[in-house]
């Protein structure tokens, strides 16, 4: 598995690197005095180096999360705050396709035990995907709720985009798995976002549920345990909550 991963990661990096190397040669050679070509090539080189940076960032995140996977998180986190911040950070990306984000949260949800930075990354990845694979003029609905027995909180990120074929759903959290590689690349994807989500959910003792209908949209639901002292709906202990 590790050898496969290294081979895949190298391949993903080699493609943009080859493009950049090729353009450097061209700019040194026959396009040396061609101003129009130079601007065009520099633009492409910028896109390719940005892609390499995103890949390296995601690879490093994945490694960091994996190293910590068996160390339980210990912060107290209010998911609504994390979700609202993640959505606000991604708001500029909704403009191109005029996508609207709506957040609904049940009132009085308890804090959970978690690593705030990892949870922020988790929701950013899910919301970003809902925007990337959403439809023009579409919606992203984010719903925070608590299970009837009070033992779990859930965050559902739903879009009305292209959806995912049933056969692909079980493979989505595999590293570098993409339903449509070309489309993912066009959208700036690395194929690592959901692998990162899976590891963060697992470190938090939670579960990821994926429900999708091609042509109608997808819902990614993260279900996380409520700490035992909160289970009987008692009020929050006065520990700092972020
Ligand atoms: P990527 O960087 O390619 O988006 P991810 O690991 O985040 O990588 O997702 C893997 C693949 O799952 C995507 O390439 C896409 O095919 C599919 N996918 C993820 N989220 C959605 C969604 N909300 N709607 C449709 N397809 C999705």
The quaternary structure here is single chain
Structural class: alpha+beta
Q: What ligand molecules are bound, each kind once?
A: adenosine-5'-diphosphate
Q: What is the percentage of strand-forming residues?
A: 15-25%
Write the element-wise H/E pattern from the N-terminal end onward. Answer: HHEHEEHEEHHEE
Mean pLDDT: 93
Q: What shape does the CA trace take?
A: globular
Strand order of the largest sheet: 2-4-5-7-6
Helix content: 40-55%
Radius of gyration of CA atoms, rounded to a whole number? 20 Å
| Major sheet characteristics | 5 strands, mixed
Number of strands: 7
- Number of helical segments with 4 or more residues: 6
First and last CA, distance: 37 Å
Low-confidence stretches: none
